Amino acid sequence: MIRVAIDGPGGTGKSSIAKEVAARLGLEYIDTGAMYRSMGLKALREGVSPADTEAVEKMLAGTEIDFNDNHMYLDGEDVSGLIRTNEVSMAASDISKLPCVRAKADALSKQLAATKNVIMEGRDIGTIVIPDAEVKIFMTAAPEVRAKRRYLQLLEAGKPADYDQIFDEIQKRDYQDSHRDYHPLKQADDSVLLDTSDMTKEENIEAVIDLIREKTGEEFAGLHAVSE
Ligand code: DC
Q1: Which of 7, 39, 156, 198 places its Cα 20 to 30 Å from the Cα of 146?
Q2: Is residue 148 assigned to a domain?
Q3: Ligand 1, atom 10: nearest CA belongs to which residue?
Q4: Which CATH number do you get for residue 71?
Q5: Which element (helix H / strand E) includes 24?
Q6: 33 in ligand 1 pocket by Cβ < 6 Å?
């Protein structure tokens, strides 16, 4: 089994890097942030406040989440295209504080990592979800760099973008994700820190592949041959 855990704050490019590495190496890509986003989306839709633990628990009792083939399903609906807004980002960060929410995402994440060679990214993969992953990476980039990347991404997509607002949101989510009481974002002692501030996307992808090669050696060579 090869399990690659990638953690780090929002906007570091973890998703696009992990997705590309997965495609090149024949690993299954699992986006755990999408699980929190889908529960955040449901809370927004139903007007459930993340501050009301009881109401969230009640909501979750009737909620089914699944992640399959790069798509996020909420109660059977493919919500992949609906969960990438700023509003849902904050709702996901807000609701992810609650142990009942984390338990639901953790259960699904652990189940997915148990049977497949995965590259899984989030905030607590190397610390809580797969602490014994073969490869553990903590990916960071300066907040200014992350804000600028996001700003350019939005402009390229022809969407409205305000750098200062993006920067503020990044700072707020960083603080919230790393200061919550339960399973906060933090680097696992045995993970490798990868600062991508000065890397291009291709350099970042290669750095992750090099780390996987370095950590898995022979085992990885077999996997790679199969995927090619
Ligand atoms: O990675 P992302 O931006 O899609 O994550 C959205 C939010 O979900 C993030 O702000 C915090 C939460 N999250 C988490 O608490 N634990 C994870 N493993 C992944 C995401």
Answers
A1: 39
A2: yes
A3: 93
A4: 3.40.50.300
A5: helix 14-25
A6: yes
- The reply to whether 225 falls in a domain is no
Q: Which helix (H) or strand (E) holds 227?
A: helix 201-227
Q: Can you read off the two tokens belonging to residue 185?
A: 């974002």
How does pLDDT run across 152-205, given as a tens digit for each residue?
A: 988 998 989 999 999 999 999 999 999 999 999 999 999 999 999 999 999 999
Give residue-wise pLDDT tens across range 20-48: 999 999 999 999 999 999 999 999 999 99
Q: Residues near 18 by Cβ (< 8 Å), separated by ≥ 6?
A: 4, 6, 29, 31, 119, 120, 121, 208
Domains contained in the chain, number: 1
CA 25/CA 205 separation, integer angstroms: 11
Measured by CA distance, the residue closest to atom 9 of ligand 1 is 93
Give residue for tokens 């909620």: 63
